[in-house]
Amino acid sequence: MRPYPRPMTRRPLIAVLTGAGISTDSGIPDYRGPNGLWQRDPKAQELVTLGPYLADEDVRRRAWLMRRDAGALTAEPNAGHRALVELAARLPVRVLTQNVDGLHQRAGLPDRKVLELHGSARRVQCVRCRRYGEMSAALARVAAGEDDPPCRECGGILKPATVMFGERLDPEVIGKAEAVARACELFIAVGSTLQVHPAALLPQIAVESGARLIIVNAEPTPYDPVADQVLREPISSALPALVATLTE
Q1: Alpha-carbon distance 184 to 92, whole Å?
Q2: 184 in a labelled binding site
Q3: Are 18 and 84 members of one domain?
Q4: Which of 86, 113, 160, 187 is most buried per CB count within 10 Å?
Q5: So where's the catalytic machinery, residue-wise (predicted)?
Q6: Residues 66-103: pLDDT tens digits?
């Protein structure tokens, strides 16, 4: 691995790709790690897969209970999220996140600096009329006794405003993320297995465009051999330390 930091002289932009690992210290479990949700309950994946979700009312009931109990809307940003706010206050930064929890914005990053590749779990969308609403309002209906709350406008099925398995990512969002990866001088991947495409291609685009790569993740990733630096320490301590180094 090449030592870092080196002087950043070519392009000032820093791209940060964040995955589920950055939010585990906020109480939101990851999916694919050794103790991830899919490992503990493989059947849970159908709750976020479009086909079963639309076809089976029981799947939707279970999905609403999962959202109610997950506590994602009450989770608070942790030191890793706050470190990226500090970095963005000192240097040009764009955060490309695979997460849907909105914790980067809650920590203080403006919307314009965050690209939510997989959408947002803080909103719902009707699959029929495509209107959006607040997830908190839908969960309040669940708490009041509606086990599968329909759209209030047209009666259609409500789903989280996220990209479920079986759905394509928004090509406009992915296009913007790829442009950031091509333009950056430094690409930092935080808490991501770097195995889910097309987001997993972003580090490759950055490296092939001449950017340096830092990986902060507890488990090995496919990009470790080409990274300038790999940090295995806990994200909530490693990321603030990295940011302090970059901003000195």
Answers
A1: 10
A2: no
A3: yes
A4: 187
A5: 118 (proton acceptor)
A6: 888 877 788 999 999 999 999 999 999 999 999 999 99
